[in-house]
Amino acid sequence: MSIKSISKTQPEIFEFSKENLEKSKLEIKKYPKNKQASAVIALLYLAQKQNDNWIPLEATKYIAKLLSMPYIKVYEVATFYSMFNLSPVGKYFVQVCTTTPCMIRGAKKLTDICKRNISENQNKLSDNKLCSWTEVECLGACVNAPMMQINQDYFEDLDEKAAEEIIQKLLRDEFSKPGSARKRKSNAPEKEKTTLLQEKNA
Ligand code: FES
To answer: What is the pTM of this model?
Structure first.
């Protein structure tokens, strides 16, 4: 289960860079007058990108002001979605899917590997500060379960050996090649297709 943790160390102020302020204005413009609150997810995403992949509480207050909406509503959105981090994450942020298809294909072994190698608890940095991990809900790659996302990349069809190797490389500041650990192409059958053989482009 994904656990939200809010950093005890918070910056005193947050404001968008000039570039992100421009981008936020463009996002707000996409919505009708007085419906600017609809841009909240886009603005939270910008704040997270600007701030090393996590959102300080000051950023949620800043966004609330920018969108003329109550701070608690921005806070609710930021704490609801697992893609928003409310505490610092490592240079390598490992998100292990633990929804049913991944779970029945061995996701528990992946979380155990993260606990052993990165940190006993989710959302805590590794001793060398390079990695952190968390559990998340379905990342939409169930057909290649079990899987984990590291930064923007998917690592799929994992077993203990492959996952351990990937994590240990991260801790040495090395990034493995993303994709299927069993070298499947996308989600194609492993031993060539067995149906629709007569059909071209099937
Ligand atoms: S259940 Fe893990 S990707 Fe969907």
So the answer is: 0.83
